[in-house]
Structure formats: structure tokens, C-alpha cells
């Protein structure tokens, strides 16, 4: 089985020790650092903004995977590209002109990601497949870390994999929310390429080991 790429989510880091936690991610086998931007309007929570992102970027040596949980994300694309985003994910539910927004993300030199809330059908993406580099399936309702994984994600991932293949798309599939070693292997089997993990990484006794276990789809050894 293919090994997934792993994107630890900064939201679960210790904000009083951000440099230490970013350094851990640098030293680990993580492939990205996932950055959750919440505006308190699109989702009922506020995370952090540009000053924190700028500080993180100074130390982070992994590409930044930026997940915008904000209304009118098109207003901030330049700013996030400038802040060092390698991937910019916008929510399908937040974009009136999704095609234009995705095109703009690529013009800015970033990879274009679209996020689907748990209730949003994958079919909504059919007419923009060629404009997408990554589809991010939310496996929880966005807004908070530490929530319970929604089981329909396995089915949704497998259907999306199919739809991408049929449509001739090479977009990657990313999963975000409640991901841990308990569902990683099954998600990869269903077609996931990238796994985002917040609490299962940062609350682990050894986060770098947790990242490796996610990659290998291995359950932790019980002592
Ligand atoms: C939730 C965020 C996630 C969050 C994941 O709205 O998009 O990236 O940090 O956290 P866990 O892995 O704890 O569910
Ligand atoms: Zn996220």
C-alpha cells in the first residue's frame, strides 16, 4: 500500500512553545505543516492570523498547507501566497466564484485545494476538476480540533477517487479531522493521499513517532 503524506495540524500545537513544536515537525517525517485559519464567521471559532503565520514560517522547513475556514477567501489569496503558502485550500461552501478563485490560486504560484464539508457532495466539483490540485474532505465539521471522525468519510473518499479517475484528474485527496492510526490505513486504502492530524500527533507521548506511525498505517505498540 502507498504511504500517505502527513500534514500535522499546527492548531493542536502548544502555542506557548510554537518554535519547539515547529522544530519537531521539521525533524520528523511530516511532509507538510497544516495551518488552520478560522475567522469566527465561516466557522464558530477564531484561530490565528498573519503575525503568527509569519513567525511560524521563519522556522518551518516543511511546505505550508493552508486551510482557509473564512468567508470570501478570495480577498486574502495574495496575502497567503505572500505568507509562504505552498497549498491554499478554500471551502467550496465559501466560494461564490470557485472557478475564478482556483484559477487565481494557481496564478499566484500555489497549489489549488478545495475543501468539502461533511454534508457537501463530491459531485459539486465535477465541472472544476481540471482546476483542482487537491480535494480536502472534511471528516469532522470544521472549526475545532479533537472531534470524532465521521465514518462516511471512507465511502466519500472511495467515490471521490473514482470520480477523479473517471474525469482524468490527477488531483490528490486529503482528509482532515479526527485522523489517527485507528483510521489512517483504511483511509489510504479508500484512496487518501494526504492525512492531516492535529491531536493524534501533538497529544501523543512522542509526536515524531506518531507521525511515523500514521505514515506506516501502523497501530502503536501497546506496552
Ligand atoms: C478542524 C481543522 C483541522 C484540525 C484537525 O476544523 O481543519 O485541521 O486541526 O484536528 P484533529 O486532528 O485534532 O481533528
Ligand atoms: Zn484543517
TrEMBL record:
SUPFAM superfamilies for the chain: Ribulose-phoshate binding barrel
Entry's Gene Ontology cellular component terms: cytoplasm
Entries under Pfam families matching the protein: Ribul_P_3_epim
Cofactor(s) listed: Fe(2+); Mn(2+); Co(2+); a divalent metal cation
PROSITE patterns given in the database record: RIBUL_P_3_EPIMER_1 (PS01085)
Positions bound to a divalent metal cation: 34, 36, 67, 176
Transmembrane segment boundaries: none
Catalyses which reaction(s): D-ribulose 5-phosphate = D-xylulose 5-phosphate
EC number, as in UniProt: 5.1.3.1
GO molecular function, one term: metal ion binding
Amino acids binding substrate: 9, 67, 143-146, 176-178, 198-199
Domain of life from the UniProt record: Bacteria
GO biological process, alphabetically ordered: pentose catabolic process; pentose-phosphate shunt
Catalytic residues identified in the record: 36, 176
Enzyme class (EC, first level): isomerase
Cofactor binding: number and manner: Binds 1 divalent metal cation per subunit.
InterPro entries found in the cross-reference section: Aldolase_TIM (IPR013785), Ribul_P_3_epim (IPR026019), Ribul_P_3_epim-like (IPR000056), RibuloseP-bd_barrel (IPR011060)
Biological pathway: Carbohydrate degradation
Alphabetical list of NCBIfam families matching this protein: PRK05581.1-4 (NF004076), rpe (TIGR01163)
HAMAP family attached to this UniProt entry: RPE
Family recorded in the similarity comment: Belongs to the ribulose-phosphate 3-epimerase family.
Function: Catalyzes the reversible epimerization of D-ribulose 5-phosphate to D-xylulose 5-phosphate.
Protein's recorded name: Ribulose-phosphate 3-epimerase
